[in-house]
Amino acid sequence: MPKVRLALAQTNPLVGDIEANLDGAFAAVRAAEKSGAELVLFGEMALSGYPIEDLAARESFLISAEQALEDFAKRLESEGLGHIAVVIGHPALAKKQVARSWAIAQNCASVIRGGKVIGKYAKHHLPNYSVFDEYRNFVPGQDLFTFELQGLNFSTLICEDIWQNGGPVAQLKSSNTDIVLVLNGSPFEVDKDDKRLSLVQELAKSNQVAVAYVNLVGGQDDLVFDGDSILVDSSGKLVGRSKQFVEDLKLYDIASKQEIYAVAESAMTKPNDLEQIWGALVLGLRDYVEKNNFPSVILGLSGGIDSAVCASLATDAIGAKRVFGVAMPSKYSSEHSIADAADSAARIGLSFSTQSIESFVTAFETELQLSGLALENLQARMRAVILMGLSNSAGHLVLTTGNKSELAVGYSTIYGDSVGGFAPIKDIEKTLVWKLAKWRNEFATLNGQTPPIPENSISKPPSAELRPDQLDQDSLPEYELLDGILDAYVEQNLGRAQIVALGFDAAVVNRIIDLVDRAEWKRRQGAIGPKITGTAFGRDRRLPITKNSKQSSN
Amino acid sequence: MPKVRLALAQTNPLVGDIEANLDGAFAAVRAAEKSGAELVLFGEMALSGYPIEDLAARESFLISAEQALEDFAKRLESEGLGHIAVVIGHPALAKKQVARSWAIAQNCASVIRGGKVIGKYAKHHLPNYSVFDEYRNFVPGQDLFTFELQGLNFSTLICEDIWQNGGPVAQLKSSNTDIVLVLNGSPFEVDKDDKRLSLVQELAKSNQVAVAYVNLVGGQDDLVFDGDSILVDSSGKLVGRSKQFVEDLKLYDIASKQEIYAVAESAMTKPNDLEQIWGALVLGLRDYVEKNNFPSVILGLSGGIDSAVCASLATDAIGAKRVFGVAMPSKYSSEHSIADAADSAARIGLSFSTQSIESFVTAFETELQLSGLALENLQARMRAVILMGLSNSAGHLVLTTGNKSELAVGYSTIYGDSVGGFAPIKDIEKTLVWKLAKWRNEFATLNGQTPPIPENSISKPPSAELRPDQLDQDSLPEYELLDGILDAYVEQNLGRAQIVALGFDAAVVNRIIDLVDRAEWKRRQGAIGPKITGTAFGRDRRLPITKNSKQSSN
C-alpha cells in the first residue's frame, strides 16, 4: 500500500527577507527528512513573508523571489534533499495580464523535487475585503495543479480558494485528488479557528479528499498569524493540529486518504478565547519588536488598567529586562495612581522611573494661557515629549496603550497618549481589557506566579486624571453600554435607526456615533496594533475623514 | 432634425451629505432648464459624494441613498422640472451577489424623467489600483443602458469603463448610441487632463459616438477632483470644456452626433502645469477646511520655503483673515529666518505671532538630559505642543508643511513638525516646491500684486535649524539628485540595481532607499494631503512597515 510521510512546516517568515526565510525552510526540510518525511508543506508566501502588499508591484522583487526559488531547489538537491517533495508559497511575476486586473504578480505555490520546480499553482480566489487587497496585488490563477507521489494524488490550493465556491476547488473530483495541500496566511481572529476547522472538514467530506492545511505563524504589522495548522482525513476527522503562536513541524503518515496517522500526538483542542487573544497580542508585539530590531520598549505607566495590561503583555513578549515603564504624575494624579503604577512595575520586574510633568505643564500653561481641553491635552503631550525623548536617546520602541473603545470615540490626546510605534491593545475594547487582565492574573496564580496586574488597577473606576476628580464616565457612558453601541456601529456596521431599534437610547447612540465619526482623523494618524476582531481600526475599516456624519450613518 | 440641449453639471458634492448634494443638483437642473436644457448630466456619485469608501458596506446608507434618489425624482416633477431628463451618479444596494465579490453596493448612474427613475446603469470596470478600492466596495454591473430622447440615443458609462477594454463599451455599436454620457470622479494628477481628452477622443472616433464627459470638482480628503468636463463630437473634435477647479454648468446643442455646438464659448486650452498644480492644492486645502467646518488654519512659519508656500496656499484657499502663522524661534534660529517669517506674514497679511521655544527646550533638555538627535527632535516637538495648544484653544486646523522629499526620507520629527490635520504640500517634491514658489510670485507680479513668498525663502539653502549652522545638505544629497532617486524608487518602483543602472551612485542609492523604507512607520502616522502625482504617499502606495528593506528593494 502506498505510504507518504508528510511534514507540515509551520514557519514564521519576515516579509522581504527571502534569504533568511529560505534558510529557515531549508532547516525545516532537513529536520523533516531526518524524521523520514518525503513531502514537506509550507504556508502561503513562506518564501517572501506575507502579506507583501505593494511589493507585489515591484517587478525586481518578483524576479528575485523566483530566482531564489530556483536556487532553493538546487540547494536542496546539492545538499542531499532532492528526493523530498517540497511545496512552498511565493510571489511570482504573472506570465500574462488578465482583464480588469492592474496587478503584475501572482500568489503561487510551487512544487520542488529533484533540484527543480516541477509545477506551480497560482491562487485563484483573491480576497479583497477586510485587511486584504489581493485583487489589487495579484492576477488570479485558473487551474488546479496535481502531482503524484507513491501512488497518491496531491493537489495544491491557497487559502481563500477554499473559502469560496467555484474555481479550482471544483476541479478536485475530476483530478482524482487524494490529498489537498492548502497553503495559508490566515490571520488570527477570535473564533476563526473553529471556522477554519469546520470549513476544512466540509471540504474534505464534500470532495472525499484528505486536507493538509498549513498556516503561517508570526506577527506582521497589524496581523497575527496563529499557526494552528491542521490535518483532516477524507471522512472529515481531525487527525492532528500544530501548536498555536509558535513555529512547529508536525508529521503524518498517509496510507490513503482515509488512513492517516499523526506520528506524534498533539493537543486536539484549543485554549479558551482569552488565552488565545493574550497569545495573539504577545506574538504580535514580540514580532513587531524583534523583526524591526528594537532593543527595548518604553511605555507610560499611569496606574490604570490599560498601561498595566500593556506592560504585562510586553513582559510576556520580550522579558522584563527590555521593558521600561515611566510614571509621569501631574498635580491631578492621585496617590493611588502613583502607587498602582509602581506596584505594576514591581510585580513584573520592569525598569521603572518617575518623571513629574508639573514644571513643564506650568511653563506652557502660563506662557500660552491654556485652559480647559487645551490644558488637559497639554498634560498628555508633555508625557509624549518625555517618552519620545527617552526613546530617541535609547532606541526604545514607544508603546501606546489606548484600547479600542477609546480609539473609537477619540477619548485620547493626539500627539499625547496616542504617540508610539505600536499599540498592543488597539483592537481590545475596554470591557475585554478587564477580562484579559483578570484572566492573566488567574493564569499566574494557577501557575504559582505573582499576578502581574495590580488588583487596584482592575477594580478602580477608570480615569484619565487630566483634571480634578475626573472619571471616564463623566464624559462617556458606562463601558458595558459604550461597547454595546460600538459593536453595533463598528463591527456590525449598522445605521443609527437600526442601533436604536436594538434598544439603545437614541440620544446616547447619536452622541457615540458622532464621536466615532469625528475621531476618524485621529485614528488615521494612530499607531498600528494587532487585529483580533472582525473589524479592527485601520485598513480593515476604510472611511472618509471628510463627510457628513449625520447622513452617512443614518 | 432632432435637437437636444444638454447641460453638463459639474458639481462639488460632500461625501455623505445627500440632502445638500441633491439641493445643489436641483438648483443646477433649475438653472439648466431656464437656459433651455432638456437633459442634465451630473458626475459619478454626485448624489453621495465620492469616493464613499467603506460607506458602501453600510446597508442603511445605501437604502437611504436610493430613497433620496426617488424623492429627488418626485421633487423635480412636483416643481415643474419633470420634463427634463436628469442623469446622476449614486450608490445603490446590489440586487444580487456576484462570485468573487464581497461587496453589497453598486456604483450607479440613474436616468430620471417624469418624476421617476426610468433606467439605471451600474459601473462595470471597478478600479482597484492606486487610491481606488472599488472592487472591494462595489459589485460590477454588466449591461449598457440606452435611452432615447428626441430621436437621439444616449448611453451611460461611468469613469473607469472607458479606460478599459471590453465590458459595456463593446455594446455601444450594437445599441446605436449617438452620444455617450460618461459620469466621472477622476482625481487630478499632473498631465492627466491630456490623457483624459485623448482617451475620450479615441472613444468617440472608434465608436462613432459623441462623448459628454462630466467630472466632479472639489477636494475630498487626499483627492482633488478638478472638473474640466469636456464634450467631443463623433469625429473626435473637442467642442467645449468646463472650467477647472470650480463648479460649472455648460450647455451644448446637439443636432446629431456630428453636429454639436457649445452655447457659450469656453477656454479650450489649459493653464500650464504649475498653475494647475497650484489650483489643485488650493482647492484640496480649501475643501478640507470648509467641508470639515474649521474656522481657520494655523501653521508654524520658519522663514523657510515650505512654510511660506503653505501660508500662501492657505491664503489663496480661505483668505488671509483665517490664516494664523506663528514663528517659534530657538537659539539656533538665524536672524534671517525670523525676518523671513515675518516678511512672509506681512506679504500675505495673515495674523502673525512669535513664541520662543527656548525656555521650554531648556526645561526638558536639563531634566531629561537630552542631546544629539533627541535634542533636535525636542525642539520640533516643543513647536508642535505650541501649535496644538493654540489649535485646541481656538479651533484652528493645524497645517503641517513637510514636502514629499522630506516625507520620503523621513527628514522630519514625528509628533514634531509632522503634527497637523492636513499637509498641503505632502505630494510636492522639494524641487517642485521651488518651482511653484517662483511661479506664484511671477503670477502675482503679472497681476500687479505683491509676490507672497519672500525671495530670500526661495534662494537661501534649506535648513531645519535644529543645531548650529545646520543645512539639509549636511544629511541629504542635493535635492535635484535626491528627487531623481526618489522618482525612480517611489514613482517608478524600480529596485536598487535598476536605479544604479540609471547612472546614480550606488552608495547614495542604497542610503536613500534605506531612509525611505525606514520612514514607512512615520508616514503611516502622517496627515493626509492632496495627491497630484501618480504615486502619492498614503493609500496610493501600501507597503509593510515590518520588512527586510535590503532584499525587498533589490
TrEMBL record, chains A, B:
One example of a Gene Ontology biological process annotation: NAD+ biosynthetic process
Keyword Ligase assigned? yes
**For this UniProt entry, what's an example GO CC term?**
cytoplasm
- Copy the pathway line from the protein's UniProt record: Cofactor biosynthesis; NAD(+) biosynthesis; NAD(+) from deamido-NAD(+) (L-Gln route): step 1/1
Positions with biased composition (Polar residues): 447-460
Q: Which UniProt keywords apply?
A: ATP-binding, Ligase, NAD, Nucleotide-binding
Q: Which Pfam families does this one have? A: CN_hydrolase, NAD_synthase
UniProt entry tagged with the keyword NAD: yes
Recorded GO terms, molecular function? ATP binding; glutaminase activity; NAD+ synthase (glutamine-hydrolyzing) activity; nitrilase activity
Location of region: Disordered: 447-469
Tell me which residues make up the CN hydrolase domain: 4-256
- Report the sequence similarity comment from the record: In the C-terminal section; belongs to the NAD synthetase family.
The protein, known as: NAD(+) synthase (glutamine-hydrolyzing)
